[in-house]
Amino acid sequence: MHYVSTRGSAPVLTFEQAMLTGLARDGGLYVPETVPTLTSEEIAALAGLPYEEIAFRVMRPFIGETFTDDEFKVLIAKAYEGFGHDARAPLKQLAPNHFLLELFHGPTLAFKDFAMQLIGQLFQAALGRSGDRVTIVGATSGDTGSAAIEAFRGLKNVDVFILYPHGRVSEVQRRQMTTPADSNVHALAVDGDFDTCQGLLKDMFNDFEFRDRVKLAGVNSINWARVLAQVVYYFSAAVSLGAPHRQIDFTVPTGNFGDIFAGYIAKKMGLPIGQLVIATNQNDILHRCLTSGSYQTEGVTPSISPSMDIQVSSNFERALFDAYGRDGAAVAQLMDELKTAGKFDVSQGALEALRETFASGRVSEEGTSESIRHTLAHSAELLCPHSAVGTAVAEQHLGANPMVTLATAHPAKFPAAVEAATGIHPALPPRMADLFDRPERVTRMTGDLKAIEALILERTGA
Ligand SMILES: *Cc1c(COP(=O)(O)O)cnc(C)c1O
Predict the structure, then answer these.
(1) Which of 156, 179, 231, 391 is most buried (CB neighbours < 10 A)?
(2) Is the whole-model pTM more than 0.85?
(3) What amino acid positions are annotated as catalytic residues?
């Protein structure tokens, strides 16, 4: 199994190399050279299996020789043992043909744990074998950072630096990043928004001298291994509802396009997914792009669903790569235009290809609050604001197939928005009840690349 860059001019890598590398050296993202498929019988046989077994069968064809079957099974088991629910990704019914896939039972209460807990295990196993040490730098709108810190804290061969936008994450998110006491964990509060943080991260990857010196590794959803881990729950949910014998629709609260791209991969693997619906908040660049064909950044407006407050949606590049017939040069040109002009136009052919797979919808701030209230009143479920964006858009797309909306975070991670909408203060699970008593440790930074690189060099001694 080989991995190629979406911009066509970086080295072809193995799974292990692609996982440890993150961003390709030509600025692109790694994707599998070909997507393996499961037969109808193989998909049918997943029904009723434990989540870990489904994870093994779905991911195994992608990892090549990186781990033996037995090693891989052990790593998967360790990744999910800390989850607070035996089903790992339980499915709940909201309405006659509408279901909620709860992805928030991991250690930091957001779906990011599914990928990050696994990546932590895979990194540790691969680095333990080679004896290498890496520096992980991540940019976060809140949930990736806490999930990464939880997955990598205390590991021997890894330092982890997380850049988050100062003042723009929820208090629970911030405390999950700033309270772990492990000395290999470094939370950096950056002046700016998520796109500032993500831009700094990309610039570090493009500074080859720095990149090689600290052995930079990325765990943002640009990392293929993260996307892969998220493919699994599309299968587990769909077979519970009757796939492969019927089609299932999914609606995904979307920011950086990683989660929904995993659904696209599941579909390419043979899972009969009908509609794949992108749900955005008022930061709706993806919805506008699919509607008009023009991908144009407008600056981020902070919302009550902050993990989706993104304008430059990195993983969309992976979808564009396929929509342009895997023409890396064409993708590289679009990304150049985006960098210089802040926009690009999708060709008619590529737009048609995207619309064949993806539908989309957008929800305002008031619409999000209304959706939280409505779901509580009609289905007795208290949703986080991101999941509420999802259910609101899903309701506009209900058809003959069962619809599954991904619930991406626990309501207690965003208590202010939930309380404002319903008057109910969602409680943290007991295992985190002391979060507000633990001391915080954070370094405030401006958005100056060189200053951040200097800090990383100093702290790692590289
Ligand atoms: C990260 C995140 C999203 C967006 O997921 P993408 O993969 O970036 O599209 C949505 N909701 C929550 C709670 C998140 O943490």
Answers:
(1) 391
(2) yes
(3) 112
In sign, the C-alpha dihedral spanning 428, 432, 438, 442 is negative
Write the residue with the smallest CA distance to atom 2 of ligand 1.
Answer: 307
Angle at 366 between CA 364 and CA 370, to 5 degrees: 115
- Class of the 91-109+225-422 domain? alpha beta
Pocket mutation for ligand 1, best pick of 103, 386, 405 (most atoms within 8 Å of C-beta): 386
The residue whose CB lies within 8 Å of the most ligand 1 atoms, and thus the one to mutate among 104, 312, 371, 408, is 408
Pocket around ligand 1: residues whose beta carbon is below 6 Å from it?
110, 112, 143, 221, 253-259, 307-308, 386, 408-409
Amino acid at 361: G
Reading the chain (462 residues) residue by residue, the pLDDT tens digits are 999 999 999 999 999 999 998 889 999 999 999 999 999 999 999 999 999 999 999 999 999 999 999 999 999 999 999 999 999 999 999 999 999 999 999 999 999 999 999 999 999 999 999 999 999 999 998 889 999 999 999 998 999 999 999 999 889 999 999 999 999 999 999 999 988 998 999 999 999 999 999 999 988 878 999 999 999 999 999 999 999 999 999 999 999 999 999 999 999 999 999 999 999 999 999 999 999 999 999 888 999 999 998 888 889 999 999 999 999 999 999 999 999 999 999 999 999 999 999 999 999 999 999 999 999 999 999 999 999 999 999 999 999 999 999 999 999 999 999 999 999 999 998 888 899 999 999 999 999 999 999 999 999 998
